[in-house]
Amino acid sequence: MSVLSFTSALLLSRCRLAECMLKSLSRLSSSSPSQLPRWFNLVPKSCHPYMELARLDKPIGTWLVYLPSTWSIALAANPGCLPDFGMLALFGVGALFMRGAGCTINDMMDRDIDAGVYRTKDRPIARGAVSMLNALKFLGFQLSGALLVLLQLNPESIFIGSCCLGLVFTYPLFKRFTYWPQLMLGATLNWGALLGYTAANSFTFSICVPLYLAGVCQTVLYDSIYSFQELPSTGAF
């Protein structure tokens, strides 16, 4: 396969992935804020607000965190071999914890704003279902889980993974003073592109950085479109 054919196939696959993401995000934005999946009934109702806080009812965000790491881990596999499934599973758990932690931080910082916006007024902290103290405890639990996952990796990966915390904590603030929060979102969501290859092999600039930048550009693209799609549901009341 020529380089041009491979590039075309890669671009086509990314376009299809972005299209699927946009459809999922569009469905989420058009649904009722209080609508919860049926499987929530399998756990006590007292846990529901925390599950909402971690966005377990909206798994698309976890996929957006997880997928860049899968691409990176797959690139680290030997030619003709499948990627390390144990590593993929480990990163899946890590993505679940970190996505939940990011959403918790976002809701803690934006609680006053969320309460005045139709799309976000029913979020657990904004509606008073979870106190700030309990949200902080829940955040500690999620970060502890993510740390346990990170400690299973090599030292180089632990360092790179730790560097992501700054982005996770500051992303909500960028929405307040820049017109390009999508860029910071992309930088945060795609950190797994740097981490996955490093964990499965070792950090290689010529592989990790281009993959990371491609993921950032893709995030800016689909999140910009999504932002326009959700405009009708973000009006203050």
UniProtKB/TrEMBL annotation:
It is a multi-pass membrane protein. Its cofactor is Mg(2+). One of its GO terms (molecular function) is 4-hydroxybenzoate polyprenyltransferase activity. Its EC number is 2.5.1.39. Its main location: membrane. It holds the Pfam family UbiA. It catalyses: all-trans-decaprenyl diphosphate + 4-hydroxybenzoate = 4-hydroxy-3-(all-trans-decaprenyl)benzoate + diphosphate; an all-trans-polyprenyl diphosphate + 4-hydroxybenzoate = a 4-hydroxy-3-(all-trans-polyprenyl)benzoate + diphosphate; all-trans-nonaprenyl diphosphate + 4-hydroxybenzoate = 4-hydroxy-3-(all-trans-nonaprenyl)benzoate + diphosphate. Keywords: Isoprene biosynthesis, Membrane, Signal, Transferase, Transmembrane, Transmembrane helix, Ubiquinone biosynthesis. The chain crosses the membrane at residues 125-151, 157-174. InterPro entries: Prenyltransferase, UbiA_prenyltransferase, UbiA_prenylTrfase_CS, UbiA_sf. Residues 1-20 form the signal peptide. It is found in: Membrane. One of its GO terms (cellular component) is mitochondrial inner membrane. One of its GO terms (biological process) is ubiquinone biosynthetic process. Belongs to the UbiA prenyltransferase family. PANTHER family: 4-HYDROXYBENZOATE POLYPRENYLTRANSFERASE, MITOCHONDRIAL, PRENYLTRANSFERASES. This is 4-hydroxybenzoate polyprenyltransferase.
